[in-house]
Design a protein that fits this description.
Layout lengths: L1 H13 L9 H12 L8 H17 L9 H12 L3 H19 L3 H82 L4 H26 L20 H6 L5 E6 L7 H21 L6 E7 L3 E8 L14 H12 L3 E6 L5 E8 L9
Parallel strand pairs: 1-2
Antiparallel strand pairs: 2-3, 3-5, 4-5
């Protein structure tokens, strides 16, 4: 409606002083072109054809000049942006030929109008390309947002699995130690009461250490400024304390040159030793001893935990529980491997190979 008013009123004002005059048919053609735009979203090609027809007939009949082409431009650009570029070019060519046949223009007039038609179509093509570019940018941004959201979900899932594994190792190790020491205390309560104090002290120390490690693991669920870690991260620098508090005789040795390790690898090696000793305490039987060897090689870290426990474990298959599976997952996550099984001479062995990143070689 607005474009119809613009074409009618604008042409009426600009026609003053011209020899040609507007009559009811001229007004009807101007209004029809503007009113046809109401259907441009539903039928863009038909709307473009209608506006071209009314504009060509108006110009071919010699009516006064003015803003008679506003509806035509809007309809043409809209149809091209909607993807109907070739039909619009065809309609424009047909309309130009019809105008030439009706108006009989001079060569100069025909050339000027041809330039305007081509220029208008090129503007419509540029507008279409810009709209498509904006759509592609929006799609790229949406895809990036989806990828970021998916990555965040994956990282959150991996973090939950890591926390669950950490809690399994911490609680399994310390609760197993507490259980062993409680059993020792109950067994010696009547015959050797002085040893009960030692067992209770070990239980107190193990429970306190378990609480500290659990708090340290759960602190990752909160912002760093709200829950700063209060205990050192688990790593091979705490190997001596781990073996002393293992609840059974453990001989630990380090082969090669000890050197700083990446935090994830350092923590994984520590947890593998911790879980292996927990399994020894649970399954190797009374009087078993264990040996821990940490071998710093040129391109890998080798961790071996063996015990001389019950010979019954040496024969047949051993069911793999959460402990061994968790250790194997830790090693695999770092690109390494873990083997666990009975030894021919008796007892059990856990052997982990963890590759070292480039640049972590020992200083010469």
């Amino acid at each position: 409606m607005l474009i119809a008013v613009v074409q009618v009123v604008g042409t009426t004002l600009t026609a003053r002083g011209e020899a040609a005059t507007l009559d009811p048919l001229g007004y009807a053609l101007l209004a029809a072109g503007g009113l046809a735009l109401a259907a441009r979203r539903r039928w863009p090609v038909a709307t473009a054809a209608a506006t071209v027809a009314t504009t060509v007939v108006y110009g071919g009949l010699g009516y006064p000049t003015g803003p008679t082409f506003v509806a035509l431009i809007i309809a043409g650009v809209g149809a091209v942006k909607a993807g109907h570029r070739y039909p619009v070019w065809g309609i424009a060519a047909g309309g130009y030929a019809g105008w030439v046949a009706l108006a009989g223009p001079t060569l100069r007039q025909a050339a000027v109008l041809a330039a305007w038609v081509v220029g208008g179509l090129l503007v419509a093509e540029w507008s279409r390309a810009g709209a498509q570019h904006r759509v592609r940018l929006a799609q790229v941004r949406a895809e990036r947002a989806r990828a970021t959201e998916e990555q965040q979900r994956r990282q959150a899932s991996e973090e939950r699995l890591r926390i669950a594994q950490e809690l399994h190792d911490v609680l399994g190790h310390h609760l197993s130690l507490i259980n062993v020491q409680a059993g020792v205390g109950l067994h010696l309560m009547d015959s050797r009461p002085e040893q009960v104090r030692v067992a209770l002290g070990t239980i107190k120390q193990a429970s306190a250490e378990a609480l500290r490690e659990v708090r340290s693991v759960l602190a990752t669920l909160y912002p760093a400024e709200q829950a700063p870690p209060r205990t050192p991260a688990a790593g091979l620098d705490r190997l001596a304390a781990l073996t002393v508090d293992a609840g059974l005789p453990v001989h630990a040795s380090v082969v090669g040159t000890s050197r700083p390790l990446p935090p994830e690898l350092d923590r994984a090696a520590y947890r593998i030793v911790q879980e292996a000793l927990t399994n020894v305490r649970r399954h190797a039987g009374a009087g078993a001893t264990a040996a821990v060897v940490v071998d710093y090689r040129q391109d890998e870290l080798v961790v071996e935990v063996t015990d001389d426990g019950s010979a019954a474990l040496a024969g047949g298959a051993v069911a793999e529980g959460n402990g061994i599976g968790g250790m194997r997952e830790r090693a695999a996550a770092l690109g390494g491997s873990l083997d666990a099984g009975p030894r021919p001479e008796g007892g059990f062995r856990v052997l982990a190979r963890l590759p070292l990143p480039a640049g972590s070689e020992p200083a010469p």
